[in-house]
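Lecture notes, part 5. Sequence design as translation. It can be helpful to think of inverse folding as translation between two languages: the language of shapes and the language of residues. The source text, in C-alpha cells, appears below.
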C-alpha cells in the first residue's frame, strides 16, 4: 500500500512539473492575444501610436530649411506660399484613397538654390540626392533626378495644402509641410511635418 501511494505521489509531482514547464515556454503572443488572434502588422513610423519617444511626431514644423552646399534658406509658410505651386493627385497606399495636394515642386526649390534643371546642370542633378527630415527625426533619402516631371511625368512636391471637402486647406495632421512623391505605391517616403531638405552631390 505504501508503495502504491509512493508511485501516485511521484506521478502527480511529475505531471505538475510538466505543466509548469509547458507554460514557461508558451509563446508570449498567445498568452497576450488568446487563441485565434493574429498579430497586427507593424504600422509605418508616422502612424504608430505616440509614446514618450514618439511624442515629437505630433510637433508641427514651423519652418522649412533648405540647404545645398554653402547655401541655406529657412522658409516660413508665407515664404513657401510665394514659390510656384502645382497640384498633384496621388493614391495613398496606406488608406487606398485618392488625395490631391498643392505644393512647391522640388525642381522649383532647386532653382531657388541655384541649380535649375537645364542642360548645363543635368550631370550634377544626376548624382545629387537629398535627405528629407521630419520633426520626429524620421529621415528618407531621395535621388533628385527621380523627383523631376521630365523624368517621371509628375513632380515630387513639398505640399502645404490638401483638398478637403472640395477646397484646398491646411495639411492638418501632416503638419505645415509634407514631402509627397507621386508614383510611390507605398508612401514611406512621404515625410510628414517636414522640417528640412538637405541636398548633397556625389563627388
Amino acid at each position: 500500500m505504501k508503495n502504491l501511494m509512493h508511485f501516485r505521489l511521484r506521478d502527480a509531482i511529475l505531471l505538475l512539473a510538466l505543466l509548469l514547464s509547458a507554460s514557461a515556454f508558451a509563446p508570449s503572443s498567445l498568452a497576450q492575444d488568446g487563441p485565434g488572434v493574429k498579430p497586427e502588422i507593424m504600422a509605418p513610423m508616422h502612424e504608430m501610436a505616440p509614446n514618450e519617444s514618439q511624442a515629437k511626431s505630433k510637433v508641427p514644423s514651423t519652418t522649412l530649411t533648405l540647404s545645398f552646399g554653402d547655401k541655406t534658406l529657412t522658409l516660413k509658410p508665407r515664404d513657401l506660399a510665394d514659390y510656384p505651386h502645382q497640384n498633384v493627385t496621388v493614391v495613398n497606399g496606406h488608406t487606398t484613397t485618392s488625395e490631391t495636394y498643392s505644393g512647391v515642386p522640388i525642381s522649383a526649390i532647386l532653382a531657388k538654390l541655384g541649380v535649375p534643371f537645364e542642360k548645363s546642370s543635368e550631370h550634377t542633378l544626376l548624382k545629387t540626392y537629398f535627405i528629407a527630415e521630419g520633426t520626429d527625426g524620421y529621415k528618407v533619402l531621395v535621388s533628385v533626378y527621380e523627383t523631376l516631371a521630365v523624368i517621371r511625368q509628375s513632380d515630387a512636391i513639398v505640399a502645404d495644402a490638401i483638398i478637403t471637402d472640395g477646397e484646398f486647406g491646411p495639411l492638418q495632421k501632416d503638419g505645415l509641410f509634407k514631402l509627397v512623391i507621386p508614383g510611390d505605391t507605398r508612401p514611406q517616403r512621404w515625410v510628414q511635418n517636414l522640417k528640412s531638405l538637405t541636398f548633397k552631390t556625389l563627388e
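The translated text above is only one of many valid answers, since several sequences can fold into similar shapes. The longest strand covers residues 97-105.
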